[in-house]
Amino acid sequence: MKNKNRTLSTYFFKLIVIVIITFSLENFLNLNLSYSNNDKVQLSKDACCSSTALGKTAWVEQLNNDIFNRDILVHSSKDEYCKPNANEKIIWFQRDNEFIEWKSSIELLRQIKSNLFYPQIPKIQTLHLPIKKPVIQAKLPQNTPSSGVSDKLLEEARVLAAFEDYKLLSDARPKKLSTSKKAFFQNRACRKAKQAIKKAIKENPSLDKLSLHKIGRKAYLNFYISNTYDFTQELRSAHNLVYPKWSIHTQDKNLKKTFNYIENNWNNLVKETSPHQNSSLLKTPYPVIIPAGRFQEPYYWDSYFGVKGLLSSGRLEIAQMQVENFLDFIQRFGLVPNGGRDYYLSRSQPPFLSSLIKEVYDASILEATKINDFKRIKQIKDWLAKRAYPLLKLDYKNFWMNSNTRYDEKTGLNHHWDSINLPRPERHSFDNESKLGNSYRDVRASAESGLDFTETLGKETSSTAGVLLNSMLYKTEKDLEFFANELDISSDSLDFKKRYNQRHESMDKYLWNAEKGCYNNYNLKTGERIPILSADTFTPLYVGMVDANKAKLIREKLTILEKNGGIMSSELTSSPHQWDGNNGWAPFQMIAMQGLKNYGYEDDAKRIAQKWTNLIAKVYIENGAIYERMDVDKLSKPEVDESKYPPQQGFLWTNSSFVWALKDILQLKFVPNKK
């Protein structure tokens, strides 16, 4: 009996010891995990001091791995790769000795969406350019940031690269599921995670716990999110607005087939917005034009170049609608966003709005004049005076000329910016944000430039005065002067004339490279030009800014940039970026063609137009598709490159450039289709 009692005592003693050790160990692990912001700063200092030889990027990565390892300890011991809630401890980012909370961007977007920016301007329902009335949403605006930017689980999935294309996550919405249904998918996801871990161990038995946890958690997130979130497109067809109208007279069968394809494809690019609850899609009063592919929303400068094709093919009403959508964005949010999603509301794109308004305004006045509709002419001018001009001027002065963000008072030049200093939610998993810019803000500024990405902007885009940006702001100031004269506002006219003359001087002083005879981008921090030739050097010709001597020198750059299929993006053929080398993009072709034509180099413009349209037709005949960019040297669709997202098919501005070049540069006749 004594031996039995002694055995029981020993058993209970051991049990108590195990409980105490387990409790202590768990508290120890939790202590390592539950660190404050001060702890993070100390970790930052420790990482810095222990790895100074590694350089800034290396020790930042080491720091992030250190914190992630600490966080993994509890996960690994409890199989918490299966938990349905996000692991908030890894949802923050660190760059340049600064810790940035992921959720800091949510409040900014909430503020942008909360109030009408310019309530003093007549609203679209009372004053609009299209004859057709706008569709107004019941509550304007909705101030809740979408699930795509506020859902912690989706952000963790981006951090762990659980999906290939993060934009898919940014556009996702949680499904309305019962508790039992969610539990079902949670259990299935957990099984998927365990299967993934077993498979990984079988393939590589030496994997450590951290690697196995990542594999399990990624598998869990991929399955759980795929089944509990809605990824369906919310855009609806606006087929009643657009239909095939034209054919062309040409002996070139490939050109004719390609033109017919584009005419029949407009209905796939003109869409109505009808967002669901928690959607990132921004509601618009009129149908939008979208690029296609992964870009299922309108984009700023894509839409401008898309409108060029709409106007060339006699689709004025749809072009008018795009102007109104952008003006509505300014009135609601204070800017024309990069694209029509709420996660784009902290940045814009190259300012083509004044050009868009002027071209559509001129076409609208011309249409009304042809039929002597003086009432309509008065309506259009009333719209310009009370809505379009005031909103354009507010966009220019409050957004672009803000010295705290995008305007450099010292040089009188502008640079791109973003109010948020975090990784882009729409990025692709192939994108390495730490290598694309010196800060997350620089990467976002590159996205605002539209040229994402290129070596010609360097690594500090948020401090780089670009040729394209400043040329288009020169054009904005010229257009504002034109509108002021049109409306007989002499004080504004004098002001904007002074502004564009000052910008011209600044561009010649800081951006003009006299030695090379071209314009280069300029780093405002270092005070040095980035001496790389880019196709954006034709933009000053496009906006009519330079004299004949400079135009001649810029024209000579065709010997470097012109290829068998059109204009290459930059002279850097060794660059991995899609806006460098032999990548041919529709905006650069159109800018170069029109710029050369403006200065009397019509033969050059026609030659490039012929090369570009032949390339588009060749690629279409060979592949049955039109792409966002093409290889102007190999005369082919772009090769798949894992350093960037896959080439997209569709495609709005390529289609548009084809139509525009045939009509406005090569002057082919469009013949109405027989009904």
- Radius of gyration (Å): 28 Å
**Percentage beta strand:** 5-15%
Share of helical residues: 40-55%
Number of helices: 24
The averaged pLDDT comes out at: 87
Structural class: mainly alpha
Gap between N and C termini, in Å?
Answer: 106 Å
Q: Report the major sheet.
A: 3 strands, antiparallel
Q: Which residue ranges are poorly predicted, with pLDDT under 50 across at least 5 consecutive positions?
A: 17-77
In the sheet with the most strands, the strands line up as 5-7-8
Count of distinct strands: 20
* Shape, principal axes of CA atoms: globular
Topology, element by element:
Layout: H1 2-33, H2 37-50, H3 56-78, E1 92-95, E2 98-101, H4 104-114, H5 147-150, H6 152-159, H7 166-170, E3 173-174, H8 179-203, H9 209-228, E4 229-230, E5 236-237, E6 246-248, H10 253-265, E7 270-272, E8 288-289, H11 300-312, H12 316-333, H13 353-370, H14 374-400, E9 407-408, E10 413-414, H15 433-436, H16 440-449, E11 464-465, H17 467-486, H18 490-511, E12 512-513, E13 518-519, E14 522-523, E15 528-529, H19 539-542, H20 548-555, H21 558-561, E16 562-563, E17 566-567, E18 583-585, H22 586-598, H23 602-623, E19 629-631, H24 652-665, E20 670-672
Helix pairs in contact: 1-3, 2-3, 8-9, 10-23, 11-12, 11-13, 11-24, 12-13, 12-14, 13-14, 13-17, 14-17, 17-18, 22-23, 22-24, 23-24
